[in-house]
Write a structure and sequence with these properties.
single chain, 80 residues, alpha+beta, four-stranded mixed beta sheet, 4 strands, 24% helix, 21% strand
Length: 80
């Protein structure tokens, strides 16, 4: 989970015209912690925060909708 307030950008990696992965991650990836949240699936989106790049199998459109609707706002997570 990433807080909405930490998200700088969400990029669509499935768009054939999107070269963000090659242009940004390969060039600047060493400046970020890279988290593969796709769990073995193909990457559909990339979420950029100040210090982390999250690679996700969830589409950028779905992530944006969740952020806009306040998905999981107020959720409490414990590490039991």
């Amino acid at each position: 989970m990433v807080k909405n307030s930490e998200i700088i950008a969400i990029f669509n990696l499935r768009d054939p015209q999107s070269l963000i992965y090659e242009d940004y991650v390969l060039k600047y990836g060493q400046n970020y912690q890279i988290v593969d949240a796709a769990d073995g699936e193909a990457y559909a989106s990339m979420i950029l925060t100040d210090d982390t790049l999250y690679l996700s199998a969830i589409s950028a459109i779905t992530l944006k909708k969740r952020a806009d609707t306040g998905f999981m706002v107020g959720a409490v997570y414990t590490n039991l």
